[in-house]
Amino acid sequence: QVDYDVCSNYGNWLYSAGIGNDPRENRKFNMIKQGLDYDGNGDYVRLWVPELQGIKGADIHTPWALSSAALSQAGVTLGETYPQPVVTAPEWSRHIHQRPGGSPHPRGRRAPAQHKDRGIDFYFSRKKDA
Fold it and tell me: What is the CATH number of the domain that holds 48?
């Protein structure tokens, strides 16, 4: 199933283009990091981009960074069976060949702790000392 929410999608496209509503300066959407965070094994990409099905694991997010031997083994020829990248953002380099859940955030921030034993009422109740 493909998710479609007009308002959310338009907002996300604006944010991705760098013109969304974000008070932080020079904010960019890093699609390589997002791919590693939310599709670490590349299953979603593999579903929708069959040309890359031969690439194993998280490397599917950066096929242009693979060796020619790895690309050949996966049956991918950049510029023929899959396009060369139009641009490569400098911010992507720190995520190339990174495994999901790998290095910590560059500024030391971590993702919020997951509280599996707490229901949604915990997050939306007024009493926070539970």
Answer: 1.10.579.10
Distance of CA 61 to the CA centre of its chain: 8
Does the residue 94 lie in any domain? Answer: yes
Provide CB contacts within 8 A for 53, sequence distance 6+.
Answer: 46
Find out whether 4 is annotated in a ligand binding site: yes
- Does residue 22 have a known ligand-binding role? no
Q: How many domains are contained in the chain?
A: 1
How confident is the model over 19-47, as pLDDT tens digits?
A: 766 667 766 778 899 899 999 999 999 99
- pTM, entire model: 0.62
Residue 50 lies in a domain: yes
Residue 78: strand pairing partners? 82
Q: Please list, residue by residue across 37-72, b when 16 or more beta carbons sit within 10 angstroms of its beta carbon and e when fewer do.
A: eebbebeebbeeeebbebbeebbbbbbebbeeeebe
